Amino acid sequence: NAGVTQTPKFQVLKTGQSMTLQCAQDMNHNSMYWYRQDPGMGLRLIYYSASEGTTDKGEVPNGYNVSRLNKREFSLRLESAAPSQTSVYFCASSPNRGYTEAFFGQGTRLTVV
Amino acid sequence: KNQVEQSPQSLIILEGKNCTLQCNYTVSPFSNLRWYKQDTGRGPVSLTIMTFSENTKSNGRYTATLDADTKQSSLHITASQLSDSASYICVVIGGGGNKLTFGTGTQLKVEL
Q: Where are the beta strands (DSSP E) in A8-113?
């Protein structure tokens, strides 16, 4: 039972470099999300995709872009990484947005130096 | 502003003891409330979900309560085990558009 799979698990970037975080779910969920988790703060929503073909900004979208490639996959791209983007990133999915339970991936620990 | 506050920030208890974690929220309108367990280096995993009409819900040794009038929830852990060591996160769904508002979590450590 894979659930939500994120790659990579760890990454170190230099300031200004770009990278894409990959996320895939095998539960046939409509909605997918990207969060970041920082010390002393609750998870914050970066972007979400309520359904295939749609994406919307969350609470902290600046510096990020997303692509809902198909129903299974939702990627997060950092075009020009900054130290402020050092964080743990979580992808999640749910059958639909809101009431239904969200399932989280294992997280990607990103360090920007 | 929609907020979720949890207390205590951290807690250390001996194995076999009980503990209660608190969650206060200001999210409105309210849809439901969830408690998640997050092990170190892992993603959060749902423990319980509480809707407006539910006062108490149990999941094994975990019992969640909800008082929608005072906007408070608690998570009671009975007969704690070493494997209960984790961060427990309160999440409130609502605030228009069914947004998820996360608390900062209570870091629980269970010791021998």
A: 10-13, 19-25, 31-37, 44-49, 56-57, 64-68, 74-78, 87-94, 103-104, 108-112
How many beta-carbon contacts under 8 Å exist across A and B?
46
Of B41, B46, B104, the CB nearest to A101: B46
A106: chain B residues, CB-CB within 8 Å: 41-43
Dist. CA A82–CA B42, nearest whole Å: 24
Buried b (16+ CB within 10 A) or exposed e, B74-109: bbebeebeeebbbbbbbbbbbbeebbbbbbbbbbbe
Chain B, 67 to 106: residues with Cβ < 8 Å from chain A are 89, 93, 97-105
Per-10-residue mean pLDDT of chain B, 112 residues long, equals 93 98 93 94 92 90 95 97 97 81 96 96
List, for residues A8-28, the tens digit of each pLDDT value: 999 999 999 999 999 999 999
Q: How confident is the model at residue A99 (pLDDT cuts 50, 70, 90)?
A: low
Amino acid found at A15:
T
pLDDT of B89 reads: 97
Contacts of A4 in chain B (CB under 8 A): 43
